[in-house]
Amino acid sequence: MVSSAQPAAKRVAVLTLGCARNETDSEELAARLAAGGWRITDDGENADVVMVNTCGFIEQAKAESIDVLLDAAGTGAKVVATGCMAERYGDELAESLPEADAVLGFDHYPDMASRLDDVLAGRKVASHRPADRRKLLPLAPADRQGAAAVVPGHSRTQQASEAADVAGAPAHLTVLRHRLSEGPVANLKLASGCDRRCTFCAIPSFRGSFVSRTPEEILAEAAWLAADGVKELNLVSENTTSYGKDLADPAALEHLLDRLAATDGIEWIRLSYLQPAELRPGLIEAMLRIDKVVPYFDLSFQHSSAQVLRRMRRFGSTESFLALLEQIREREPRAGARTNVIVGFPGETEADVEELMGFLSEARLDATGVFAYSDEDGTEAVGLDGHVEEDAVAERVTRVSMLVDELVSQRAADRVGETMTVLVESVEDDGVDGRGAHQAPEVDGSIALVGEVDGLCVGDFVTAKVVDSHGVDLVAEVVEESW
Question: Are 127 and 150 in contact (CB under 8 A)?
């Protein structure tokens, strides 16, 4: 007698650590797994497999990835490590972390469902063996589009065959995606990898050389996201200002923004990860001209001392960065601006720290992330002279962070009296919260809405006047109904 019982669903919990690019990679993986018969969940306690999309950027992120993998092992589920840390360390990580049942790299992504089938069945899956991914793509950017290398989040002939069969995906959308979160905001990847050789950064070695997604691929995904209720697109990559360098169009990003703005349902378009040395006047003009592109500049300064920047193998100075900000604010005085800075880089002097603090005081940024320098495996900075003592680095980080807290609070207070559009992101019994155009998701503070808030829903846009500030956060009174 043949049993009619259906096989139990295979459940995989997908946990994501690190940056917005990792989040888009997880949604690609989730779609591949769903197409392979896996049920996606965020409940590690009741999953058959917990897959952790790790971060391998800095020491603190790597430590967090290890902790999450160990916690996952405590659930009794099979544990799979993937993502940047798994790609970067591969079999070395597997050897040092026997709690993980498999350590899989980017080359496993197209067949991830089958690999998880193997893990669940107890079959041994060979761990990823790391290699410099910059060697997988041609040296000349113009030759990269036709390369067959696996690049997470990109259409490649080897990866695209199943895309048309995925429920809900447009026939021409050749990148699989399954949203792991709800809400009116979504990240949209423009490119992967990086061609820069910053001495503190290992990302190019495990993410590979820079390669753009095609405009058609991006536009199709934007339309798909809009149909799912997304109102704001957060455009992400390792280096957004390089977009199109491999597409034979020097103004590819400007042209893409115009076409994205024509997507029905999308109201805000936000650019992240802008390289100051590559921020062309034409791109600034496009960002401030196109109505749906919010006037928000996420500028990767890293420092302002010219001598520190040279040792970082970057370009710029206090004077040039201030001039860039002035150029933007001449066109749009209320434009948002944020950055990250590294304190304690080898060779940094007290004079450099004072210059950085002076720059931050003049720059009037809405948000600034302050990071302590740490040696990263395989980077040039490890071998530089002039390493700063750990205690001195910590003291400098504290000093700069205290100044930043004061400066961003002042900048928020300066916005009291402004009338701005606010995207509603949370409607709870204890209040309604949203963000303004100058605030990126999760990192730049929020706006508590007061006044006529009854009836507001997540995803609504309202016009509100800022009436108070608390640190980086604002309080704004609704003055116009939602749209």
Answer: no
Give the CA angle between residues 167, 173, 177 to the nearest 5°.
60
Distances (CA, A) of 280 to 115, 276, 324, 437: 44, 9, 10, 21
Alpha helices in 80-135, H assignment, sequence order: 84-96, 112-121
Per-residue model confidence as pLDDT tens digits over 368-417 = 999 999 999 889 999 999 999 999 999 999 999 999 999 999 999 999 99
pLDDT at 148 over 80: no
Question: By the 8 A CB rule, do 136 and 196 touch?
Answer: no
In three state form, how does the secondary structure of 261-307 look? HCCCCCCEEEECCECHHHCCHHHHHHHHHCCCECCEEEECCECCCHH
With residue 336 as reference, give the H or E element that holds it: strand 336-343
CA distance 455 to 41: 31
User: What tokens appear for 348 in the block?
Assistant: 């940094």
Considering only CA atoms, which of 404, 407, 445, 439 is closest in space to residue 421?
439
DSSP category for residue 152: T
For residues 367 and 269, give the distance between their C-alpha atoms in angstroms, rounded to a whole number: 19
Q: Nearest to residue 467, comparing CAs of 448, 446, 483? A: 448
Which residue in the block uniquely carries the two structure tokens 């002035």?
326
Tokens of 384: 């530089």
Query: For residue range 422-460, what is the model confidence (pLDDT) as tens digits?
Result: 999 999 988 999 999 999 998 889 999 999 888 899 999
Give the whole-angstrom CA distance, residue 465 versus residue 285: 27
Q: Greatest CA separation found in the chain?
A: 83
CB-based contact 215:110 (threshold 8 Å): no
252: left (phi over 0), alpha (psi -120 to 50) or beta: alpha
3-state secondary structure of 137: coil
In the block, tokens 């919260």 appear at 433
Q: Which of 343, 394, 339, 349 is nearest to 369 (CA)?
A: 339
* Residue 249: DSSP 8-state: -
How far apart, in Å, are the Cα atoms of 162 and each of 32, 36, 65, 133, 206? 9, 10, 31, 25, 26
